[in-house]
Each structure stands twice: as C-alpha cells, then as structure tokens.
Amino acid sequence: MAEASRHDAWAAGDSYDAYMGRWSRQIAPRFLDWLAPREGSDWLEIGCGTGALSGAIVERCKPGSLLSIDASEGFVSRARANVRDARVVFEVGDAQALAVATASKDIVVSALVLNFVPDKDKALAEMRRAARQSATIGFYVWDYPGGGVEFMRAFWVAAAALDPAAQELTEDRRFPDCTQEALTGLATRAGLRSVVSAPIEIPTVFRDFDDFWRPFTLGAGPAPGYCASLAPAARERLRQKLHDALPRSADGSIPLKARAWAVKGGAS
Fold first, then answer.
1. pTM to 2 decimal places
2. Which residues are bridge partners to 111 per DSSP?
C-alpha cells in the first residue's frame, strides 16, 4: 500500500464530521447560491459524504428529487441519518460507473470529492451522460495547491518541521490539479458549455486550541491518519508546536479560512 493512501481513512462518518464535515456544511450553501439552480429539479449528487451538500439542497433548493451516491457505506449510512427527506435517496456507488439512467437529471453536482476519484475524466463523462440536454453540471474542491485550507496547511507545516517525511503526505503535493486552471480544463474536456469558475471562501474559526486539535486525533483523513500513526511522544511534540504557532483572537479562538474552487457549465 502506498504511504500516502495509508492515511486516507475516510470511512468513519462521525470522525469525518468532526474534522471536515462541519466546514463542508458551511461551504455548501455558498456553492448553491452561486450555482443558482431551478426549483423542482431532479438532482444527482456524486460523492455525498455525510450529507453536507445533500442537506443544503433539500433546505434551499426545493428539489423534485435527489439521488446522492458515495463509494463509502459508512458515509452513506451517516448521510441517511443526517438528511431525512422523502425526496432523497442515498446509495453506494462509483462515480466512474454511475448506475443512473442516461439523460435523467436536471442538475448534477459533486462536492469536495473529485480529487479522490482515480479517473476524473471518466467521472465527468458519467456526470454528463446522466444529465439532460438543458442540465447544469457543477462541482467544487478545496484549493489545496493554493493553501486554501489554512488549518490543514498549519498542521502540515508543523508536522514537516518535526518530520521532513511528512511533506510527501500533504494535500498540495497529492492533489496538484485542484487549481482553477486544471478544473476548468477538466470541465472543458468533458464537453461542458459556457464553463465558468469562481473561488468560494468560508471562515473556519475554532473555539480554542482543543477544538482545533481534537479532530486531528480521530484518524479520518490524511492529516488525522498521520497524527494517529505517531508515537505518543512525537504526537505531543506536534501538538505543542501547533499550540505555540497558531494565531489567536482576544477571546482565545483561532481564526482561519478555507477556500474552494467551484466550476459549472451546461451539459450540452
């Protein structure tokens, strides 16, 4: 097993929610505002995770129907518990081979997952196949190469200062195509028309250092997986280095930001 993939422990929905899910829920409404979807549409969501975007679609967009898929049974189970609505169906599925009828959806979206798909071109081709002629296709991923997720970057900077080998596990090295240029190129290659892209930014404010640190100890994701792999003494050195380095507001909170690149276009 490759060293990088060894730390990709994404199946535990509860741990993911504590680490990334809370920020996924914040960015989802901003993406939907930018997408400007029609009410009553039939939606398909690729990579639903624990239901952050699914819940926002139900709350804000008045969908006619929503089919949300994810490769992880653990995530699908958590999403079903998080989003209870008769219009929504959650299923385990593969983004590269969708069990969805051709030309059956009005809006096809994907949130914060395409960077994990081995064949992104195949996934976009499948999204386009599922879309009706007048459909909108949209997706977004974190801006890892640009340091857009500041709490992740702070973690890896501290980790690499103590362990240079940690540099090989950072998201910016592992996901170099999460840039505006590469993502718009992906959409263009898929044949989408009128492709546009934009940055979407949210604050990621941690109440205190414990609120920042605890999710890194839960093992869900590359950085928490790396943290969990450390011997207790090494983990404590990393904790102390972060404690000393992070910015603080007057109330003790830690004010950081996260940025994603969003892309949308017409199916034909």
1. 0.91
2. 140
